[in-house]
Specification:
The protein is α+β, with helices and mostly antiparallel strands. It has helices at residues 2-15, 142-162, 166-178, 180-192, 196-224; strands at residues 17-22, 40-45, 48-53, 59-65, 68-75, 79-81, 84-88, 94-98, 111-112, 116-117, 120-123. It has a 6-stranded antiparallel β-sheet with strand order 3-2-5-7-8-9, with no helix packed on it. Strands 4-1-10 form a 3-stranded mixed β-sheet. The protein has a two-stranded antiparallel ribbon with strand order 6-11. Strand 7 (84-88) and strand 8 form a beta hairpin.
Length: 225
């Protein structure tokens, strides 16, 4: 009975699709011993997933893959690899395409041959190097640039006025007098020099004298009457 069952399942097992992928030598990975032993690869699709481990010669082998469209991903702690699209037809024909993350699934890239060569993108970096101190970094601040420009105007303007042509200097001073800023400053100086006490005293004296005149005029009118 067991032999009969094995004979029935043997054609199905022998016809199941398989896929082999390998990591080639590169400037980043000169030896497969540089890869952690925990490195794995997975084929994922809706409702199915296959996972295999890395061999000593840098290969991944998937067996008994059912028909469907899969995403081949390499999970490595130290290096990043490009993802691939794997299509398995009902007749167990396997096709591999380059794919891109965050794009439409139908957006296929270059077709890959078998066995599949896995492309390493680079080493993973988990720490960010601390930037050194540089005085030039202060010049990138807008506030520092505005302060430097203001100091240049303050210290450079007298020098420019001294070396300016007399006619041009006179014209410049005349424009400064007519400018709204100059008028506002003059108005501000007049308000600062305003004496409130003297103004109040003058106002009171004027009012008193006016009242006296009116009362004197009234008394003369009464005498005449």
């Amino acid at each position: 009975m067991l032999l009969y069952t094995f004979l029935l399942l043997f054609p199905l097992l022998s016809n199941a699709a398989s896929l082999t992928a390998f990591i080639p030598s590169s400037p980043q990975i000169t030896s497969h011993s540089l890869l952690p032993s925990s490195t794995t690869a997975s084929l994922d699709t809706v409702g199915a997933s296959y996972t295999t481990s890395l061999t000593r010669n840098g290969r991944f082998t998937f067996r008994n893959i059912t028909s469907g469209s899969y995403l081949l991903t390499v999970h490595c702690r130290t290096f990043a690899f490009a993802p691939l699209r794997v299509d398995v037809a009902p007749d167990d024909v396997v096709e591999v395409w380059q794919t891109f993350r965050d794009n439409e699934w139908d957006n296929k890239g270059e077709k890959k041959g078998l066995p599949v060569e896995l492309q390493v993108l680079g080493a993973k970096e988990y720490y960010q190097a601390r930037e050194g101190f540089s005085p030039m970094s202060y010049l990138k601040s807008p506030m520092i640039l505005i302060a430097i420009a203001g100091m240049a105007l303050v210290f450079g303007m007298p020098y420019l006025l001294e070396n300016m042509d007399p006619e041009m200097r006179a014209e410049f001073e005349e424009q400064q007098k007519k400018s709204p800023l100059a008028g506002g400053m003059a108005g501000g100086n007049s308000l600062q020099n305003f004496d409130m006490a003297a103004w109040m005293a003058g106002k009171t004296g004027t009012t008193g004298s006016t009242t006296g005149k009116e009362s004197g005029g009234g008394s003369s009118t009464r005498r005449r009457g």
